[in-house]
Amino acid sequence: MAPSNPSRLLLLTHLDEPTYPSIADAVTAAAFHSRQEIVHVVVPISETSRHILDHFGLDEDEDVPALVLMNAPKSQSFRFPLYGNNLIHNHKMVEPLLVEFEAKYLRGDLVPDAPPPEKLRPNLYTHVNAGAYEMGVLERDNVDALVFFFTPSCEICPALRAVFHQVAVVFMTVPTIHFGEVDGSVNKVAQPRRGNPLYPSIYFYPAKDRAHIVEYVGVVTVEAISDYLKVHARKFSLDGQIYGKRYDAI
């Protein structure tokens, strides 16, 4: 059985790239060797996926196509050494090199990439103020939203906030689930729960059903929150699998 949150190899590419079929075949061959320990995903470059390039500090003109191994729970990424024109020109050599690259990763012999400069990090999640909460969360109900409420004075908030960000990375290829966070010390955003606000808190805002906001009360781990979204979010695809509910109105 494959792990519930396996590592992912992302092939970030334009589908009209002439060498795409050859590189995709190499990725398929590597998937056979990794024995389900690594999920292999093709991510076509489009307006809805360019934030993924930003997340890894990749330039669309210089670095694409690219192959990136991602360990979301550990917030680690490992870029395959051939990318951009170098990958295109050497596409026939990719299969054996990629198989060995993944084998080294599984043995723990690869060094993670340094994170890109902060200015290149993506908006995988949104810092929500009062106005954005009304317009971006409550009124924009065609997507599911998960919102984390915290304050800097909360001792356990930093650790849970880091988990929340890691979940956003896991779902970075799912455009129908948005992530937001509210700093309760500077934003007067009323929590859906009655009574005094509670920090930290996580709320799930179902698509097409903002009248039934749900407080997430499960364990705050990447795996647990991911499993929750796979059950309660609207239908979506992740790593080649279909999850979520069906909404006739969507």
UniProtKB/TrEMBL annotation:
Q: Which residues form the Thioredoxin domain?
A: 129-230
Q: Which domain of life is it from?
A: Eukaryota
Q: Which GO terms describe its molecular function?
A: protein disulfide isomerase activity
Enumerate the Gene3D superfamilies for this protein.
Glutaredoxin
Q: Which Pfam family, an example, fits this chain?
A: Thioredoxin
Query: Which GO terms of type biological process are on file?
Result: protein folding; response to endoplasmic reticulum stress
GO CC list: endoplasmic reticulum
Which PANTHER family does the protein's record reference? Answer: PROTEIN DISULFIDE ISOMERASE
Similarity field = Belongs to the protein disulfide isomerase family.
Query: What's the protein called, per UniProt?
Result: Thioredoxin domain-containing protein
- Which organism does this record belong to? Aphanomyces euteiches
